[in-house]
User: What shape does this take?
Amino acid sequence: MNGDKTSREKLRLLYFWYLYYLKKKIPKDSKLRGEYGEWLAERYLLKKAYTCLHRNWRSKQDRRMELDLVCLQNNHLVFVEVRARSSNAMVNGWQSLSPRKRKALLTSSKHYLQEEKRFLESYRFDLVEIDIPENSFTEFRLFHHENIAIYKR
Assistant: This one.
């Protein structure tokens, strides 16, 4: 079973490389777009000297609590939310971060700190927005918002 998951993961990565380098049109399947967006965000963050600790981390206590990427940068723990959207969507990734999602991110990060027992200098939240074009000729656009405020004032 584990070998199947590994081969499926490799196949998914090959597919993403294929889409990326040949500038192919991304299918409209929202799950696939989300996974592709997370892959693009992880590649971008690795180029910026982040170390990715977890992708799609889920709490053992509550499987609904999920973090897209958990990274390290200069001894700071960074929780990264990835918002991959169509380039002609009505709202951008930043605007789509609802108060409910912000609360879920905060709760998920607390679960992570408790379960993984990570004690670092500090932690923060980043948001990576990815605008995925509708056609294959246009490049995707990526926006990285560091240290976003997720608390309600």
